[in-house]
Amino acid sequence: MTTLMTPDELEARLRDVGRRRYHNLHPFHRLLHDGKLDFGQVQAWALNRYYYQAMIPVKDSSILARMEEAELRRVWRQRIIDHDGDHDGEGGIARWLTLTDGLGLDREYVTSLRGLLPATRFAVDAYVHFVREKSLLEAIASSLTEMFSPGIIGERVAGMLKNYDFVSEQTLAYFEKRLTQAPRDADFALDYVKKNARTPEQQEAAIRALEFKCNVLWVQLDALYFAYVDPKMAYPGAFAPKETR
């Protein structure tokens, strides 16, 4: 890129990344929402996704520590509270464990991470390293997948409630909160990127950061698909479903 885009042009480019690369396009996502997965495959999804959820406040703490302005820190720290809660049993991570509990997964086993697919761990760890090593602008831009998440969340909840008798509104409560949290967070991050990407190089870096984050989400579904759907060859030591229902 050699030409500086207007803030609105940059936003359009960022939103185009989501239209082309967001993981709502992944075959595993379609199988999950359309009721085409069996019980064990849904368990595998929830168990592996737990690691991503658990590392979100770690990622956000890294970003928070690099913010020099108190105003930015006050806004960004809400993300950590949203996931960790103020007390035990509160927050997004606790709500995700309600989902894994509801799917019959032993909580200690889930939180031990013993059943993770290697690619899940590599992808999530790569995201944490990215926000630590790249510029603050790139770290914030990578969070902009939240611009696209309300659509996928609505589709996910409706599809799962319709197609799976082993989930309920209570077990899917994590997603209800994200319908308000994600747009709030995305609006702030988008405003920051539009104001602080002041050169063509910075704008390009912001776009590439969002592409990277889409890749992180996509490759997690790749791992699930090739381990539990086709050819159903889970890695040694990874979670092995016992029930199909």
UniProtKB/TrEMBL annotation:
Pathway stated in the Swiss-Prot or TrEMBL entry: Cofactor biosynthesis; pyrroloquinoline quinone biosynthesis
Uppermost EC category: oxidoreductase
Keyword set includes rRNA-binding: no
Record has Repeat as a keyword: no
Any one Gene Ontology BP term: pyrroloquinoline quinone biosynthetic process
UniProt cross-references to InterPro entries, sorted A to Z: Haem_Oase-like_multi-hlx, PqqC, PqqC-like, Thiaminase-2/PQQC
Catalytic activity entry: 6-(2-amino-2-carboxyethyl)-7,8-dioxo-1,2,3,4,7,8-hexahydroquinoline-2,4-dicarboxylate + 3 O2 = pyrroloquinoline quinone + 2 H2O2 + 2 H2O + H(+)
Protein family: Belongs to the PqqC family.
Protein name: Pyrroloquinoline-quinone synthase
Organism of this sequence: Ancylobacter pratisalsi
Gene assigned in the entry: pqqC
